[in-house]
Design goal:
Blueprint lengths: L16 E2 H17 L1 H6 L3 H18 L5 E6 L2 H5 L14 E5 L5 H17 L5 H14 L29 H15 L2 H9 L16 H12 L1
Antiparallel strand pairs: 1-2, 2-3
Helix pairs in contact: 1-3, 1-5, 3-5, 5-6, 5-7, 7-8, 7-9
Catalytic activity: Endohydrolysis of (1->4)-beta-D-glucosidic linkages in cellulose, lichenin and cereal beta-D-glucans
Pfam family, one: Glyco_hydro_9
Organism: Linum tenue
Length: about 220
Amino acid sequence: VQVNLVGGYYDAGDNVKFGWTISYTTSLLSWAAIEYRQQITSAGEIEHLRQAIRWATDFLLRSHTSSTTFYTQVGDGNKDHSCWERPEDMDTPRTLYKITSQNPGSEAAGDAAAALAAASMVFEHVDAAYSSKLLQHAKSVINLINHNTNYFLIIVKKPSCPFYCSYSGYQDELLWGATWLYEATGDKKYHGYLTSNQGWSGSVSEFSWDNKLAGVQTLLAKVTL
């Protein structure tokens, strides 16, 4: 399809790239850069961390080819997982999967929005233009959950997943994306969305790529307490 999807991170020891898990990793790296910036800077590692984040966010930006299209997977997950090899030697298909306004993916869109919004805060004072670009795409990609509405995330649609599936449901990704957009922008519409859907949250026993509620609760507690 003539799309440049260079960059990002491979999954485990194989050569498939999942936008969903890349986004989760990127949001955590960005959170660390925000929360522990002074300590990481003192250790002389802040620039290395920014480079690691940017390698992922550049890929997410390339994946968001239009306001209605976001590529979420590069490669065949089943075939790739059965063959671990060097990227230089890969001969597995580079099959592409995408979400669109007609076929939205709540988890992938919510996580990508969170990653891009969080990363925009990392680069805010070191590369203002790049930070602004990340935030612009964060606001746009989350609309793929329901592109045809003017209000933020009124309707949620969850199609079948090509490989990784969300066992905890899609609600935590929507809250995760809205939380980071609120952190990055201070826009009350995101806070209003979180307040309106606080019933989705609850007691959880883990914080993982599949369930982000503990992260949402931690971030919002710091804002409201």
